[in-house]
Amino acid sequence: MDITLEKASDTNASLKITLTPADYKPEVDKKLKDYGRKVQLKGFRPGHVPASLVQKMYGKSILVDEINAMLSKTVSQYIRENKLQVVGDPIPDRELADTIDWDNQSEFAFSYTLGLASEFDIDFSDLPSVTQYEIEAGEAEVDSTIADLQQRFHAHGHGEEVADGDTIYGELKQTSTPEGADAFTAKTAFPMNQMAEDAKGQFVGKKKGDVVTFVLEQAFPDEKARANATGVKKEEAAELTGEFTFEVDDITRNEPAELNQEFFDKVLGVGAVSDEEQFRTKVAEIIRGNYGRESAQLLRLDIEKTLLENTPILLPDEFLKNWLLEVNEGKFTPEQVDEQYDDFTKSVKLQLIKNKIADKADIKVEFDEVLAVTREMVREQFGFAGSEDEEMKKTIDRIARNYLMDEKNNGQNYTSTFNRVYDDKVIEFAKTQMTLVSQDITVDEFKALVENR
User: Fold this and answer.
1) How many CA atoms lie within 13 Å of 371's alpha carbon, on the beta-carbon side?
2) Trigger factor ribosome-binding bacterial domain spans which residues (predicted)?
3) 372: closest CA among 405, 397, 392, 390?
């Protein structure tokens, strides 16, 4: 076998492969013998079909299959062993392949066009610093969060007058009906937040015992809200229209929870804190933790941006555009490829950079690491967090393994999880090599920063 790489430029090359009988004949002969033992042909006992007849019937297809398999393996192995930074897939020279005479040739020549990324290196010491934001939860943010929690864990109270947001209970009566039909009447509840804005004024300010006359479909134009307000099915509510009266029997509203031990226990767990000061401290920690995850994500994006902007890499643009059109088989036009090409090349370059970092740092991902991440995903998804007994651990492990080995999606679950673990390890290594500058920032400043990005 003869393999030659011919580089036309830093980003374009041809890989030429010549195969002789010594390369493929042993395996082809072996498969022909296997066929001879298995083939069943009328007039011959199994295993006694003449070799010449087996050759005539199956020789060409076995030869073609064997050479195609050998080429695929050879190209991949050559690229891997020579550490070629190939982008896209090698494209075979189909015109050259079409000239092959499979019946008479014994030596075969093939050629592949390769798209290459230019040589590059990463010197972390030359990279600019990256800002790592430390989120400070100020008093205003703590106050706002506690107010939201008080609303979430609200208590039920009763009002003297109807206000927007209340729920009013009473008797609903239809004032006019078609001849021969019974008037609709029901004890029901009106959630004011489901009522049309221009109808609320008829109810706001009313007290217990007051009677409001109104048009039902104007107060509840949405049929689903009307069904909820009347207590009938949606299709029946569509028929309820016209003038109605509503006599107010009771007014209820959600009142913010009081800052007491019962509230603290509901929010943080029984006994986690014992007074308001401790509660505020804990809330501030939670806010920092929540925004800390967003800060970590922003740091990751900034690291990737810094690596991209400071690592010049040339790509075979024409080759890649043609390759994108070919592999997508008519799904995109040349104009659409041009439109999305910049984003595509950024992702290609970023992956090349990460691969280079992984190679330098000897970063590898083992199956146990992928499995551990998947187990954690199962715990979070199914609420299995915390300590588990042995039976629970076995259940989690079984679900995780089934997810990773799911054959229905051709191993995509394993591949995507592997890539996530790989990516995380590369970024974590980059953090140890780059200069990270901490900067304290308020929640509002951080929100504005993220919005501007």
Assistant:
1) 12
2) 1-148
3) 397
Residue with tokens 């767990």: 269
On the 0-12 / 13-18 / 19+ scale of CB atoms within 10 A, 315 is: buried
The model's pLDDT over 391-448, given as tens digits with 9 standing for 90+, comes to 888 889 999 999 998 878 888 999 999 999 999 999 999 999 999 999 998 888 888 8
φ and ψ at 158, to 5 degrees? -115, 140
124-138+266-452 carries CATH number 1.10.3120 = yes
Which one is the CATH code of 155-255: 3.40.50.720, 3.50.30.10, 3.10.50.30, 3.40.50.300? 3.10.50.30
Q: Cα-atom radius of gyration of the chain, to the nearest Å?
A: 36
Tokens 């986690």 belong to 272
- Angstrom CA distances, 168 to 74, 231, 451, stand at 78, 14, 41
Tokens 């804190």 identify what position?
Answer: 273
Task: Evaluate whether 108 touches 19 at the Cβ level (below 8 Å).
Answer: yes
What residue spans define the domains of the chain?
2-115, 124-138+266-452, 155-255
User: CA-CA distance, 168 to 208, in Å (whole number)?
Assistant: 9
Tokens of 332: 């995109």
How far is residue 300 from each of residues 133, 154, 263, 307, 434, measured CA to CA in Å? 11, 38, 37, 11, 12
As a whole number of angstroms, the longest Cα–Cα distance in the chain is 105
Please state the pTM of the whole predicted model.
0.68
Total residues belonging to the chain: 453
pLDDT digits 0-9 by tens, 324-336 = 998 888 788 999 9
CATH of domain 2-115: 3.30.70.1050
Distance, CA of 371 to CA of 412 (rounded, Å)? 14
